[in-house]
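Extended Data, panel c. Modelled sequence:
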Amino acid sequence: MLDATVEEKNFPCSDHQPWLNQRDPEGCNRKLRLLVRTASNSYFAQVVSSLDIPEPKSARDAVESHWNVLAAANAATLPAFRTIAHIAKALESYTDKEVLSAVEAKLQNKKTDRVPLRTAEFQQFISAPPEKAGDYPPTGSEFFIRAAHPKDGLPEGVARVVLAHRLREVRAQTGFTRFEASTPNLQGEYPENDIGVKAAPLAAHVTWLPGIEIRGEGIFIQLDEGAVRKWEERKAVKDRARALEQGHRRWLHRRSGGDASKEEKLPPFYGGRYYLLHSLSHLLIQAVSLSCGYSASAIRERIYCEAGTVGPPMAAILLSTGTSGTEGTLGGLLLQGRALREHLGRAYDMGVLCSNDPVCAAHDPVADPTGRNLEGAACHGCVFIAEPSCEQFNSFLDRALIFPTLGHEEVAFFRDRP
């Protein structure tokens, strides 16, 4: 049985893809590997999701909706077009300059720059208006967010808490992998050049993808960017991030088969910031689940992370729950956002000591013989949660970066109990 797990010692692949009832058109020159049918690594779904956030109307929208008339608009003719009742109503919010710029862009077929998925969502959350008495979601609304102001204030290091009263998430499965999960990037997308793991198609001829709509609620928590940057500059944190990066390199080496040219195409190290946000998300899911009425496996995470190198800096998480029914959820998770300090304190108690300490706290991501090179101080006794709730299949975790951990007290972002 042990020899059957070694690819070089097994039978050659026959190119057959039984779920498609065909053979692989590209062929296969590799050998089979043993896979237990009920093992957790037998199937990893590739799921891309997006929040449905209505975009604000623009002059371009108005122009395109009446393009049959406004295609001929210019500085001389636009005033005449504004005398037409339905055109005047559509353009009443825009100046002549804005309308003519939109017409010119349409004529030249200029495309607006696409903002990356997570960045666009993050910008919407941080611009949420403050909540006020009597402000309720309109009937039929799919997205309704308000910035909360907890009675006891925000914990140190937290910049903003946004209550998402209404959320609509669309999820679509694009493929699947076996043995090892394909790693999504910081925008939640699967890069095409991730050659370490080849995704299998869902069907022989894909013209559509299976998708689902989830309606629910959530809590958006943004860390203070200044505090995060100051934390990243600490020597102890840099040393810890360097150790995690070395573990990541070992993982890259193993996944690429030692081919340096392939390693360059694999997902890069996301930095200590991502480990911080991801680990905080897991501990908060466990803490919040004790009060909100939903199990931890019913709460999903969404990480917003960017150090500012390729886009605006982001350091936030979204904890959400939902259902495929049309009624959504009942608000139990939403209300916990007003008690963030209490839940952070509970997460602190869970994170400072693990039932597997000192073994868990002393875990070395570089020298681990079991291949757990993507985790620092993290295991099933503290940080790991149900895999459907996690974006990274319980990888890229280290509770030492959040709260004081045995032997690593100096690298914690929250040094004191909130």
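The mean pLDDT is 85. This feature is highlighted in the accompanying rendering.
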